Amino acid sequence: INRICKHRRHREQHSHTSKVKTFNQPSFKMTSTSTSDKATASATTKTMRVIQVHEFVSASMDNLTTAMTLSDTAAIPELDPKKNKGQILVRVLACSISPGDVLMVQGNLIFMHPDSFPFTPGMDICGQVVDSNGSTRLTNGDVIVASNGTSPQGGLAEYMIVDDAEAIVKPASVSIEKAAASSSAITARNAVLDNVKAGDRVLILGGSGGVGSAAIAMAKTHAKASFVATTSTQKAFCESLGADKVINYKEQNWWEMEWEQPFDKIIDTVGGGNFTDKAHRVLKPGRAGGVFIAVAGDDPKPDVTSVWKAVKFFFNLPMRPLYTWLYKSQLPSYMLAMPYDFPKGRAEVLKMMEEKELDIKLEEGMPLPFTADGARKAFQTVAGGHSHGKVVLTVAKPI
Q1: Contacts of 60 (CB under 8 A, 6+ apart)
Q2: Share of the chain above pLDDT 70, in %
Q3: Among the four residues 21, 41, 159, 208, which has the most C-beta atoms within 10 Å?
Q4: What share of the chain is helix, strand, coil (3-state, %, to 5)?
């Protein structure tokens, strides 16, 4: 949410330059890919395949079949060299789905509502540059990792316009699917490397998810934490990342366990369990350096569907940090994991992946195909909240 809010004004400033128009075919020859010859045909006819959302998806997802469909007649977006300065056109190879994408298609947050229906969901992609539009960093054919930098829209399509500044060239040794899924590791980087110090004892809630798994590896390898515990049912996997203790949350409550020493940091990637109010039992008070870092809030699926609800939502955000600061001799400090320079973070994460210091785990059965059923399954999996890795769809193969 923080990431999306940070770029919302940018989206409004540039919305008039990103309208879908007929596209002058880029100067390269499309070849058949494993996603079927439809990709080739759509490029030839100046149209593309996209996933479209026609109405907000209900919390139960009982309208998912009608709300989310595949169209093969959408116009490819056009880059205007004058109006779209600093932007590039990318042929999407893979797109990952995150909780923010689910919030977008469900309409939970009023400031993330689309301008109109239907819209194309998806935000984090790995793609190949089709039109570098005068970029001094990128050339046509480069395989890059990027986000649209504004809101979760546009990624589940054969072509997408992104800001040049958001794009980082993919290291050759990193797979396309894992590169597309690396955004969660940027969130983990923010939570861990900006807060955990060498020698800290750290508890990570939700260690087998996209953010949690990356947080374990970073806390142990990069932040040099002395002890890392996590909650998960995936014991062997979390231990392979460096976790010293894995708590099966179905069998034990971490706040009721006896620990040799209190923790210095708790990183909550799960949310929704009122964990903040339980943390003081095992976490040092703020005066002694104890910090509860909230990647996910008390309600991971907040209802901010009206202006009034949005006002209340943002008004309440600083209340807990202020309260815990006033009582820091008794309670751990509370902080929200705030936005980081995402292009810089993306470059750091990709370098870690290239040097085999970080691996991105994909959910079992990934990647999914670029079909209506594939997209629906992706959103159902992420919305369920119990995936054990990143959810990714393969859109095309590089040329």
Answers
A1: none
A2: 83
A3: 159
A4: 35, 20, 45
